[in-house]
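Table S2 (continued). Query chain:
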Amino acid sequence: MPVPASVSDYRLLAEQRLPRAFFDYIDGGAYNELTLAANRDDLDALNLHQRVLRGAANIDTSTTVLGETLAQPVILGPVGLAGLYARRGEVQAARAAKAAGVPFCLSTVSICSIEEVSAAGTAPFWFQLYVIRDRGYAKELLARAQAAGCTTLVFTVDLPVFATRYRDVRNGMTGGATLAGRLAKLWDIVRHTDWLLDVAVGGKPLTFGNLAQAVPSAKSLEAMKVWVDAQFDPAITWRDLGWLRENWSGNIVIKGVLDADDARAAADIGASAVVVSNHGGRQLDGAPSAISTLPRVVDAVGDRLEVLMDGGIRSGQDVAKALALGAKAILLGRPWAYGLAARGEQGVAEVLALLKRELEITMTLLGVERIEQIGAGALDR
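Corresponding output:
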């Protein structure tokens, strides 16, 4: 392929380099992937309002999120198993984020541990936590993150149970594969020589870094699924979140909000921000797109906390659309995972540079020079 020109190009490179099961884990969604498609379709349906002769010559994409200055309104959101996409993948992504002047958020289910990412000189970074039934284990993770210098916690609330993802079932990612299916998966891994040497051979130790005590080996994805099913807690309510504030002194970001009342509840418990998100279309299929839900969440709580968004963002123009509807910044998921899988740290850096340049061009054509000037007028109604 020629020099990648878009996030879609990095997606194609990732598809070529990764074994099918790992690519589909990044790329796929729940059930029939209706919400996955809606995230993109609804962004595409928004038109930008071009203005001319506005003197937009000194573009500045910097902004502030939760007191932190960002070079652009983009955060590398939590992506599970990123260390299976490139050698010590979370470390590579964190380095790229730091160099680009944007935050990196480490997933609970990462391959590299909190301590490894911190030791790579990438602190401070954000940390993401799921609703874990074992509160003692959760508190231990929070203590480790704070000891590593993490100041912002992203608490993911839209995964009380693990939704069925047809691609993962067919690929045997969630267990239950036949002998023929396991052999086909093994052959698919072996024939992806570049990935095999980089990750499976050179990327050791392949463990779930933060959860090594519970699930010792990342070779057993089925064991991870068993742990998730046992630990993710559908019984938790807003009233139960007092323990979170008791054990975390920094910013708390509630991720996975699509309802205005849920956003108000997050504000009531003292959250610093919410992320309008449907988990990238990986949970409730048929749920609305993140971009269509964003305005009502902003209307409900935008004066009480910061509103972030993820889901479907693939370009700097998409970033501008989210900002126009009230998002303070966006969390990037699949695009940085594609970049990492395609070209490692360099690929993540290139994706971030690509989005920044696209945002700069978009701002020029909108006739604005500062991020705070991107408002509802940036959309053509």
